[in-house]
Amino acid sequence: MESPAGESLKSVTLACRLLFKPIIEIEIIMAVFYSAERNVTSVGIGFRFSRRWYMPLVTGIILTLLSQIQAGAAVINAASPSFGNVSTAIALAANGDTIVIPAGTATWTSTLTIGKAITLQGAGVGQTIIKDGLTGTTLLMSWAIPANFASRLTGIEFQNVARTGGIIVMEFRGSNVNGSTLRVDHCSFNQIQGTVNFETIIGVVDHNTFVIAPVASAIRINDTQWNDPTQLSGDKSWTDSPGYGSSQFLFVEDNTFSTLASTTPAVTDAYDGARFVLRHNSFNNCIPQNHGTESHGRGRGCRVWEIYNNTFIGNGSNHFIGGSRSGSVLFHDNNISGYWGDQAAFTFVNIRADYPWPFWGAADGTNVWDVNDPTVYFTGRAASASSGNTVTVSGVSWTTNQWVDYVIRRTTNLGNVSTATSEGIESNTANTITYTSRTGSAFPIRPLSFAAGDTVEIRKVLKVLDGVGVGSGSLIQGSTPTPPAGWNDQVTEPCYSWNNVNELNHPVNFGETSTGYLVKAGVNYFNTPPPFSYTPYTYPHPLVSGAPAAPQNLHVTQ
């Protein structure tokens, strides 16, 4: 039959009995509508009751039951995987609809922009293939996730055509406070020459395959607008508690990450108060890492992450299985092989210890963003010009390594050089100090150097701004902020490692990248379970296991 709008309609009537006294028969009418004009299928549900005076009671019961299912969403079939046909299908969609992209291959040369809560569904990896035909910094996909809806990307393989570099290729933008969620699942990201960016997303990335191009991390996590959509730097993520074991993370679970490179590229990168969980993944010669509050400019570093029940398989090229430059991490119950046996370690570094980043400056024992010991532990002079990253000091007889993880400063500039003025101390002998150094194009200021006669000063940093094993604190605000009243009131939130084993069935734990970076065992990290109660969040994630969303646009007919 035809609906008044000219749409074909079929109906199926089901009957069931609910055991009340007297017996009430409820007839459930489900109507399926198909519109050839929109290529849309939708569903309507109605009810009839044998005893009308029970209608309010039964209505409540039925609506409660139906609150556990999704109803009323349309399915829109794109004519092909081409950019034009997919864009047309999305234009027809409403929140809650599903766009089905058929099998086939298409090269996109424009950005697919989505601002709706839809399911974008391909025919499966190897079936629906989208090739990135863009270059430069133009995004292949930009998706703003609407409030109070679940969005999903599934069943598509993404490949690269001509893009080079290591920029963001795809981006998803959401919120942790508006009820939006995202699931990205059963896709392939095959050497896409860039990263998939998640901006303040609550949800899950699961059952995907990432073949990582060495130019960029596979995924990047930011929580720039955590708890506040007007924020631009993740400041309110840093004032918030860690939230271990809660739903308030982006979960990355049951994925396979690998690379064709002989090097060990990054699985993750993280900025701006990022919060995420890596669990039940396979990392094949690639490692998780993050950024701190340093090289990113005004943006803050990664706030907190959990890493557990993963498999790490290396090719023997190094012993680092991951690293953190900021915040807190729980690292437990992982299986590790191919990372130099008992030398395998998850490592830490506070890079502000040895480089004066343009916005936050160096952690040199005097910087107002850090907690500093006011004591000047030593003042003297360089006996000669420094050699490499070692300086000889006049008239001293020190104990070997007594200054490790203190800071050395140059307070004069007799050589008229443009270098860093401080570095973290790696080691010392009776009269020399060897300090950290950073070189390369990412570090345009050369490392610390001394001329003969330059003043040498030794200081101590007690707590690095947003450093490893540090969290919370007063709110920092503005594009060029000054320390808020009472700063630095951040607290120590140590990192914990336990139950990780290598191929020898020996423990794998935390360690420092090297000395001199102001990270201390027994203060900033512990190789033990945490002293607080901790239970990992539900696995599989509810968006994976099928916990249903609430129905929409329901009504009861008589």
Question: Could you write a compact summary of the structure shown?
Answer:
The chain has 558 residues and is mainly beta. It has four helices and 41 strands. The longest helix is centred in the N-terminal third of the chain and has 12 residues.
Structure description:
- By secondary structure, the protein is mainly beta.
- The protein is 6% helix and 35% strand.
- It has four helices and 41 strands.
- Strands 1-2-3-4-5-8-11-14-17-20-23-25-28-39-41 form a 15-stranded mixed β-sheet, with helices on one face. A nine-stranded parallel β-sheet has the order 6-9-12-15-18-21-24-26-29, with no helix packed on it. The chain has a six-stranded parallel β-sheet with strand order 7-10-13-16-19-22.
- Strand 34 (422-428) and strand 35 (432-435) form a beta hairpin.
- The radius of gyration is 29 Å and the shape is elongated.
- The chain starts with 7 loop residues before the first strand and ends in a 13-residue tail after the last helix.
- Residues 1-38, 40-47, 52-71 and 548-558 have low confidence and may be disordered.
